[in-house]
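Now for one record.
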Amino acid sequence: MFDNSVLAEPEMAIDPANDGRHELPDVAMGRESIPYIVVLPEHKIAFFTYTWVTKDSVAGAALAVFGPGVGGPPIQQRLADRPVPRTMGFDKWEIEGFRMEQDLKFDKAHVHWETPEATVDFDFEATHPPYSYGADPRGCPGYCATDRVEQAGRVTGTLRLGDRTIEFDATGHRDHSWGTRDWVPFMQYEWFVGQVGGDIAVHFWRFNALGKEHVRGYVYKDGLMSRVDTVEVDVTYDSQYWQTGYTARIVDAAGRETNVQTEVFGTYTLVPDPSISLNESGGGSMIDGKAGVGWMECAWPTSYLAHIRANGPY
């Protein structure tokens, strides 16, 4: 069980009840979502599960397993939106071959997804308290959510690819947001999560929206968790604007500097809305000189990205 005493600002603790399902606002874009992501650089494989539910209790889910270690194109499945019981909670969430069981304490969870091509089965155990955007003094922008939380943890389980089974004991990350989600205000962003075992976890989201640059996130290391104050990011891209690597310099509210350097081994595009393309990437990271893992999501307006790919490189 994580310890809230590691929070540099104790007032940023969030009620564990928020690990469960919420009553969503009665607005057109009211939704709730939870992804889990895992990077296995030794196998050159990364994967995520992602589920969502709307204010009308219509839910769906998506899975992608990608990277050179897959041995071919990404393995992916999208479970179409369908009505689900309003009484179905995240402690026993099930859609076809996908199951997610959270303990509703922001501590432990189990995720299982079975398809003919791949089966993902793992346990998650948090290594630090959840970071709440709503509890951050800068707040959670209304087009993102009423609130969202980010949290890293230990993941242990198996990944089956055809007749090959990979056992892993690694680190992973999850987030959980609820409220309004409007993708159109985002002009561009970098969303990063990375870990070094259970000792270091970093998350930042640098996003441009409504004419301003915003930064949120946290650094957990040396037994202290502090929100991100500033971040400098430099991403390298190939000719089709897939990220190939990146560096970041992060300063948190406790005055500490954290440095990240990542080599990307695999990429995948998630399209949650036709207006935006989320280019996901898994890689091996060096965080403060220690070997770990990193995942960066670079978001672009879909039409903008298509134009750059068609007319670049410049």
About this structure: Residues 28-311 form a domain with the AttH-like fold fold (CATH 2.40.370.10). The chain is about 5% helix and 60% strand. The chain has one domain: 28-311. The mean pLDDT is 97.
